[in-house]
Design brief:
This protein is an all-alpha fold. The protein contains 5 helices and no strands. α1 crosses α3, α1 crosses α5 and α4 packs across α5.
């Protein structure tokens, strides 16, 4: 049972790091939004990070990130720093 939770935690950490990358600089966030527009992904929710003191913030973070899954994939293909950032942080 613990192994399953550990796998989930690894996935949550990767999503958290991807969001941190996008939100770390204004031009990255702008590029992310433009990519979402090109893929015709419209979502009123923006990317948010979870907070340890808010019990549902991880759920809200994952729910918002799920809407932009294709954008993260495209970002990985078009932005070399994105993939290297994820590897460095892990």
């Amino acid at each position: 049972m613990c192994d399953g939770l550990e796998e989930i935690n690894v996935s949550v950490v990767k999503i958290r790091n991807a969001i941190r990358f996008v939100r770390s600089l204004p031009f990255r966030l702008l590029a992310f939004k433009k990519c979402a527009e090109k893929l015709h992904i419209e979502c009123k929710k923006s990317l948010c990070l979870d907070v340890a003191t808010r019990w549902n913030s991880t759920y809200l973070m994952l729910k918002a990130a799920e809407k932009f899954e294709k954008v993260f994939v495209r970002l990985g293909q078009s932005e070399p720093r994105y993939m290297s950032y994820l590897l460095e942080v892990d």
